Structures are given as C-alpha cells and as structure tokens.
Amino acid sequence: QVQVVESGGKLVQAGGSLRLSCSASVRTFSSHTMAWFRRAPGKEREFVAAIPWNSGNTAYADSVKGRFTMSRDNAKNTVYLQMNNLKPEDTAVYYCNAWRGLDSYWGQGTQVTVSS
C-alpha cells in the first residue's frame, strides 16, 4: 500500500520561511510526477507546484512564483517545498500528491499557518 506523508508545517510569522517535506513509499517514485496542493479555510484545494520525474521544468502557481521552490531527491523518495517570504494568505493545509498515469496518491496534509 502506498503511503504519502507530509511534514514540516507549523505556525510562522509573515515574511518567514518554512520547508515542507513529503515522502512516498511508492516503489517507482523516480518515475512519478510529484505535486503540492493546498486548501485554505473555506476554499477549494488549489495547485501550488509540481515537479516531473526528472526534475525538469517545475511548474508553480502564479501566487507562489518567486517565493516557493520545489525539489526532489529520488534516492530518498522525498520531495521538498521551500517557502520563503510567507504571507498570511499562504495559510492552508498543504497536500502532497504522487501521480503517474492512472495512479494518484495523496497524503493527509500538513498545516501551515502564517500570522500577520
């Protein structure tokens, strides 16, 4: 059974930084696209960033471009989301997704709260 586990979320002040981690137990991790999504209170889940299997062109939502950086370490079956210059509107539960073909696996999420 595939497990996706996020960690690193916490309370941080506006302007601060945080790094989220996501590990996936999927056997073919290195061939999966990995992505981060988030859901703010009262809002729909939205795309944040995605990185392909070969760490090629990483995609970002316009709202986080220039502030967030996603990376992956295939040897550790782990992806990271470095978040800088955090804003109160970044407050959300952040979810990690592992995707390949028809397979899509989600974690339980990690809470990020940015205080003003």
Present the secondary structure layout.
Layout: E1 4-7, E2 11-13, E3 18-24, E4 33-39, E5 45-51, E6 59-60, E7 68-73, E8 78-83, E9 92-100, E10 103-106, E11 110-115
Parallel strand pairs: 2-11
Antiparallel strand pairs: 1-3, 3-8, 4-5, 4-9, 5-6, 7-8, 9-10, 9-11
Provide keyphrases for this structure.
single chain; 116 residues; mainly beta; 7-stranded mixed sheet; 4-stranded antiparallel sheet; 0% helix; globular
Describe the structure.
The protein is mostly beta strands and 116 residues long. The protein contains no helices and eleven strands. The strands form two sheets. Strands 2, 4, 5, 6, 9, 10 and 11 form a seven-stranded mixed β-sheet that branches. Strands 1-3-8-7 form a four-stranded antiparallel β-sheet, with no helix packed on it. β5 (45-51) and β6 (59-60) form a beta hairpin. The radius of gyration is 13 Å and the shape is globular. The mean pLDDT is 95.
Provide a short characterization of the protein structure.
This protein is mainly beta. Helix content is 0%, strand content 53%.
| Mean model confidence by pLDDT | 95
Low-confidence stretches are none
The portion of residues assigned to helices is: under 10%
* C-alpha-based Rg, rounded: 13 Å
